[in-house]
TrEMBL record:
This is Exodeoxyribonuclease III. Pfam families: Exo_endo_phos. NCBIfam families: exoDNase_III (TIGR00195), xth (TIGR00633). The keyword rRNA processing does not apply. Belongs to the DNA repair enzymes AP/ExoA family. Residues 6-256 form the Endonuclease/exonuclease/phosphatase domain. Keywords: Hydrolase, Magnesium, Metal-binding. Its cofactor is Mg(2+).
């Protein structure tokens, strides 16, 4: 079995002080994908940077204090890559991948966007390039007899049951018709499988992000924007997939919660 977790840490230095370090020490995950690290290598907390038993690939953004992703694995990767061959985005700290025996695992932080601004244009450019990469990644892996798992903060709620207040967000970034259609293409045309939704087809959520404003967490008024997207062969082996929601607002160490999946994949 292999256990994979993904979580947007909302700044690794702050998260380490609030409970991320303890979570990493206690997790049973074999691979952990992190997003929004927001730190250069020399800025990482020592208790994170020097963790025993983990191999780490860090991909900070060229713009300091922004974005940044990482992939942590208990087994040494056979190959690592930062970026996906994009002139515009490979230095933005939004994508890193590793190869383990028979499996490629990637960490993604897709731009959040903002309607009517350059940020939304940037998001759309990223989506267009990234979909091509996801298609070629899956095809190449199939030719090599490998499976693929792309984890992270996709910043899109795909279906109405992926966010609590969907009616009020129909014109907002993250739930725009064109963004949702892009996710549908990823699933239906490119052929990835949303493993959490696959195991919980009729459940509202489970949500993975809650605003710090108001009582969003206490009311479970959240969004499901953190996904583990798997190649069909790997998805068919998924025995469990769940959100590690904090027991209380005070125990949160990020505005996101880890999402974890268990696969019957043998190295």
């Amino acid at each position: 079995m292999i256990v994979v977790s993904t979580v947007n840490v909302n700044g690794i230095r702050a998260a380490a002080k609030k409970g991320l370090t303890e979570w990493l020490a206690g997790t049973k995950a074999d691979v952990v994908c992190l997003q929004e690290v927001r730190a250069e290598a020399d800025q990482l907390p020592s208790e994170i940077k020097d963790m025993e038993g983990w191999h780490a690939v860090w991909a900070p953004a060229a713009a300091k204090g922004r974005a940044g992703v990482a992939v942590l694995s208990r087994r040494a990767p056979e190959r690592t890559a930062i970026g996906f061959g994009s002139t515009e985005f490979d230095g933005s700290g939004r994508y890193a991948e590793i190869d383990l025996p028979g499996l490629t695992v990637a960490s993604l932080y897709l731009p959040s966007g903002e309607v009517g601004t350059e940020r939304q244009d940037e998001k759309e450019r990223f989506m267009a390039e990234f979909l091509v990469h996801l298609d070629s990644l899956k095809r190449r892996a199939a030719e090599e007899g490998r499976e693929v798992l792309v984890c992270g903060d996709w910043n899109i709620a795909h279906r109405e049951d992926d966010l609590k207040n969907w009616r009020a967000n129909r014109k907002n970034a993250g739930f725009l018709p064109e963004e949702r259609a892009w996710m549908t293409r990823l699933l239906d045309d490119v052929g990835y499988v949303d493993v959490v939704r696959d195991l919980h087809p009729d459940q509202a959520g489970p949500y993975t992000w809650w605003s710090y404003r108001g009582r969003a967490f206490d009311n479970d008024s959240g969004w499901r924007i953190d996904y583990l997207m798997a190649s069909p062969g790997l998805a068919a082996t998924c025995a469990d997939a769940y959100v590690e929601r904090a027991a209380s607002h005070a125990e949160r160490w990020s505005d996101h919660a880890p999402v974890t999946a268990v696969f019957d994949h043998r190295f």
